[in-house]
Amino acid sequence: MPKMGEDLHQYLRQQMMPTVWCPGCGHGNIARAIATALEHLGTDLGQVAILGGIGCSGRTPFYFNTNAMHTTHGRVLAFATGLKLANPRLTVITAMGDGDALAIGAGHFIHAARRNIDLTVILYNNSIYGMTGGQQAPTTPFNFRSTTSPFGNIEPTFDTVDLALAAGATYVARTTTFDFAEMPEYILGAIRHPGFAVVEILSQCPTYFGRLNKLGDPPDMLEYERNHTIVADEESVISRDELLGNLPVGVFRQEIRPEYTHQYADLCQARGGAYRA
Amino acid sequence: MRLVQGNEAVVLGALAGGCNFYAGYPITPATEIMEQMARVLPARGGVFIQMEDELAALGAVIGAAWGGMRAMTATSGPGFSLMQEHIGYAAMTQTPCVIVDSQRVGPSTGQPTMPAQGDVMQARWGSHGDRPAIVVTASSVKDAYQMTQLSFEWADTYRLPVIVLLDAVLSHMRENVELPPAPPPFSRTLSPDVDVEKPFGNHPFVPFAETTRTIVTGLAHDETGATRGTVGHASEKIIRDAFNRLNHDYAAITQYREYRLEDAAWAVVSYGITARAARAAVDILRGEGMRVGLLELISLWPFPEPTVQSLARQVQGILMPELNLGQLILPLRAAVEGICPVAGLGRADGELFTPEEIANAMTSHSTHAERRVSHHA
Ligand SMILES: Cc1ncc(C[n+]2csc(CCOP(=O)(O)OP(=O)(O)O)c2C)c(N)n1
Ligand code: SF4
Q: Are B342 and B359 found together in one domain?
């Protein structure tokens, strides 16, 4: 990743500032990483659309100077699929929460991955429902507390990376808000990748997840992210012991497979239709 | 002239209306619409996609509309229920799109292959909050073609989801019709003088373009799309203005058909597939010497209040047969309250009305109503 730009303001929609995010929230770190990735991408912002679901994370599209859609809870990938098919030359980026993507929107997530349609998913995983005030998410770790698991969560979690890989996503990466260099790098990799790309970013929600689980201030939570993740991508060799209690981070897949809008363009061409991907 | 199925007429009407994007999920009795779209759209360079459920289908349609396409989906009761959240989103974001609901008996799975008219209220009120709505129906294959075509035009003009209600019988029925060949594929041209700063409110629909920086949101917003500050008022105004546009164009939007009403002393008011039996019932009763006619409603919402009111002033009583247990009779009664008595005839067992049933109900309504009138005298 080249050196980060100094002036990211041109990528932001100034009239929407300040953001709704709490001080110290990781979602702001992710937004900065998106701006950095856009700077390196260099594409005219008129050629980019950012779409979000509903949640703190879903507010992302408001803050960028692109065409934008703030859609419905869980279903942003359905809107993004329609938009991308209507205008395949558009760079379409989606921002989702873990509840958004893996609970109410899990069906859309796996099917968009299966189609390998050229969309980028940035999955803000703060292990909890932020916007609605700290309820349990499918990513809330075992025994951790939320307002709807006040005595500790008894459910197993979804692993975004496993799910995305199994469903057919062709770029899959995970990082954390602690990893400020990797975040924009992976996001840029995902945007440039010609297929369905997922970047999961572990993000801190000091207001609910941190407070309910006594994880301390935002810096402590970043520290916690660092101490509970381990680089374990395609290239690294890690023992089972090292993995225990840690979440692997890195790029887990980067693979070219037939992409949906191109497949569709071929189908049209075979029928004599003029659709261009 | 050729034999065309109701669902096929929807496809042809959609193409005539410029439809170039279809997203759907299979469901009886609407499936043929989707199957035929899958066959015809690729050759026209349009987009067809089968989504994972109906929420996804309508979500994709809305996304495609902002991508510049004329988009539609089709479904039936269970899928229509799922779509309600996105119908509200399309209304809130003023997104043009068309939704066809071929009605079957409900609630729930009900009778998948049997006709009903039980979605006429859901089509108007199914999504939470207030929204202006255009809902149309059809009683023939030809109508299905024309109303679908018109729906695309209205969706664009009024910037809202237009709903076309068919039913299991009309969807699957074949009639001889003469239809023009499908026009060349639609492509949207952007007028250069649009105000890209004001994508909402009383402004034309402008999809995403290089020059726009539109933010589309289901949150309350003003005409710039901003959600901060005192947007509650601005947002209500956008919705009120949208209602006003429909009121202003009431005469153009309201579609109905009159049959033997000139000298009628009694009237049947009906819509959709039921209007066919109602027409035959009118002929039976006329044969018996009763001065009765039919008002067939083709657009259901906005509810044609002035139209039914002037009819109510002409006649001594109205009968409304419908394939539900009394739905559209509610706004009808409210509209003609104190002008003339209204009786309903309903069924939700999956059978159509026979003309005789409607004729008998009309006869008994007229004797009751006459008796009531003489009591008062
Ligand atoms: C259909 C529907 N159900 C529920 C909600 C309420 N709701 C809003 S955001 C949210 C969860 C937010 O959590 P997440 O997706 O993890 O995002 P975060 O706020 O943590 O970024 C819920 C349940 C809604 N808006 N729509
Ligand atoms: S509630 Fe949590 S996720 Fe939402 S803005 Fe605040 S800190 Fe961030």
A: yes
Measured N-to-C along each axis, helices B231-248 and B141-158 cross at an angle, to the nearest 10 degrees, of 140
Closest CA to B309 of B291, B324, B295: B295
Cross-chain residue pair A275–B51, CB shorter than 8 Å: no
- Compute the distance between CA of residue A95 and CA of residue B319 in angstroms, rounded to an integer: 54
Our answer on whether the CB atom of A22 is closer than 6 Å to any ligand 2 atom is yes
Does residue A30 carry a pLDDT above 60? Answer: yes
More confident residue, A5 or B292: B292
Chain A positions touching B220 (Cβ under 8 A) are none
Distance A205 CA to ligand 2 centre (A): 5
Under the banding of pLDDT at 50, 70 and 90, the label for residue A1 is very low
User: By alpha-carbon position, which residue is closest to atom 11 of ligand 1?
Assistant: A129
- Judging by DSSP bridges, how do beta strands B111-115 and B97-105 pair with one another? antiparallel
Confidence of residue B375 (pLDDT cuts 50, 70, 90): low
Residue type at position B178 = E
**Residue whose CA is at the smallest distance from ligand 1 atom 13:** A129
pLDDT tens profile B101-150: 999 999 999 999 999 999 999 999 999 999 999 999 999 999 999 999 99
Taking residue B111's Cβ as centre, other Cβ atoms within 10 Å add up to 17
Neighbouring-strand partners of residue B3: B176
pTM over 0.95: yes
Token code pair at residue B139: 């009683």
This complex has an ipTM of: 0.96
Verify that B249 and B268 share a domain, yes or no: no
Tell which atom from ligand 2 comes closest to the C-alpha of A203. 3
The answer to whether residues B274 and B354 touch, using CB atoms and an 8 Å cutoff, is no
CATH for the A9-270 domain, from 3.40.50.970, 3.90.1150.10, 3.40.47.10, 3.40.50.300? 3.40.50.970
Chain A interface disruption, residue of B19, B44, B66, most A CBs within 10 A: B66
pLDDT tens profile A85-108: 999 999 999 999 999 999 999 999
Interval between CA A99 and ligand 1 midpoint (Å): 6
Confidence of residue A239 (pLDDT cuts 50, 70, 90): confident
Ligand 1 atom with the shortest distance to the CA of A129 = 13
Asked if the Cβ–Cβ distance from A75 to B55 is below 8 Å, we say yes
Estimate the share of chain A in helix, then strand, then coil, as percent rounded to the nearest 5.
40, 20, 40
Tell me which residue has tokens 């679901």.
A53
Q: Does B52 touch chain A (CB under 8 A)?
A: yes
Q: Which domain holds residue B63?
A: 1-253
Q: Are B167 and B28 in contact (CB under 8 A)?
A: no
Number of domains into which chain B is organized: 2
Residues of B in contact with A274 (CB under 8 A): 45, 185
Q: In terms of domains, do B249 and B327 share one?
A: no
Sequence ranges of the domains in chain A? 9-270
Residue of the CA atom closest to atom 26 of ligand 1: A73
How far does the CA of residue A141 sit from the closest CA of chain B (Å)? Answer: 29
Domain containing residue B351: CATH number? 3.40.50.920
Mutate to test the pocket of ligand 1, among A63, A72, A73, A124 (most ligand atoms within 8 A of CB): A73
